[in-house]
Amino acid sequence: MTSTDSQPFLSIKDLKVHFSTEDGTVKAVDGLSFDLARGRTLGIVGESGSGKSVTNLTILGLHNPDTTTIEGSIELDGDELNGASDRTLEKLRGNKMAMIFQDALASLSPYHTIGTQIGEVYRKHTGASKKAARERAIEMLRRVGIPQPDRRVDNYPHEFSGGMRQRAMIAMALVCDPKLLIADEPTTALDVTVQAQIMDLLKDLQQEFGTSIIFITHDLGVIADIADDVLVMYGGRCVERGPKEEVLRSPQHPYTWGLLGSMPSLDGPVDVPLNPIPGSPPSLLNPPTGCRFHPRCAFASEVEGNRCATERPLLQIEDGRGNACHLSDGQRREFLADLAASKAI
């Protein structure tokens, strides 16, 4: 079955990913839902341990079935991936969906040339000859801005700079023209200049290939540059979602307020102190009841009846915008105005 243009290219419904460990069950993702349209970029943001990477590794089917329980629906272009066979997922990976990992050096084999590694992906999914695969590798290196690609195709990963290795990883991910690209913090280890180049490259390639992108990061500044829509995760759940401009201009959840308050501003006074979120992310072995952010939330006491500690807030989505918080709209506007006036966000 193939979706129509009116349907989301990727649709996640009530996804739960739990890991069995000696200490108990880790609820890494606990009831996550979102859609991604064709040719759009969804930025998923949150602290380490929020469930960002687990979500996307699950989409790709990169989990240990002996220790992982997956519930919910993962529908890609009309096809259900949860419960799909290993053979089906292997065929889709690299061909219809691909991933760029954070550490390119660790992800590339040190024993094979860049061209061989890109070419093998192409050969596996197309049955191309070695000669055709080499030509395709050179073409992809040229597309991602590697100078002298016909010569650099025979280099090993250690002969590339960090930025060039990341470009090579992007070339490998896009060699079979996948329609879904998952980028897991691909610019974290790079300097600011190279980071900007990689971001521009992804946007250019998206326009060329029409690819849908999921961009995982902890940095809202990166989200502001590349994303169309934003999904904020905390403790394995989505706490806020919406178009990038709306989430960054008028955030609705206290956790998003905290993320914005902990970021330095390039256009504001240099002496304004940052406001880090107090405490630590929750244990997913024994997560807090109610709203998982409530132990760290400065506004939980403003909600009557201790609801934040006892009742899980529902994620109410209207026109692609929503949040999971017990604060009323009036309280939210008041607190947001106070935070803005005090330069806390």
Automatic annotation (TrEMBL):
What molecular function does GO assign, one term? ATP hydrolysis activity
Biological process, per Gene Ontology: peptide transport
This entry carries the following GO cellular component terms, namely:
plasma membrane
Is Flavoprotein set as a keyword in this record?
A: no
Q: Where is the ABC transporter domain?
A: 12-260
Q: Which Pfam families match?
A: ABC_tran (PF00005), oligo_HPY (PF08352)
Q: Which SMART domains match?
A: AAA
Q: According to its record, how does it sit in the membrane?
A: Peripheral membrane protein
Q: What keywords are assigned to this protein?
A: ATP-binding, Cell membrane, Membrane, Nucleotide-binding, Transport
List the PROSITE patterns hit by this protein, alphabetically. Answer: ABC_TRANSPORTER_1, ABC_TRANSPORTER_2
Q: Does the keyword section mention Ribonucleoprotein? A: no
| Compartments in which it is found | Cell membrane
Annotated signal sequence range: none
The record's section on Gene3D superfamilies has:
P-loop containing nucleotide triphosphate hydrolases
Instruction: Name the family the entry cites.
Output: Belongs to the ABC transporter superfamily.
Xref: PANTHER family: DIPEPTIDE TRANSPORT ATP-BINDING PROTEIN DPPD, OLIGOPEPTIDE TRANSPORT ATP-BINDING PROTEIN APPD
Please identify the protein, giving its name as recorded.
Answer: ABC transporter ATP-binding protein
Species of origin reads Streptomyces griseoluteus
Q: What is the lineage of its organism?
A: Bacteria, Bacillati, Actinomycetota, Actinomycetes, Kitasatosporales
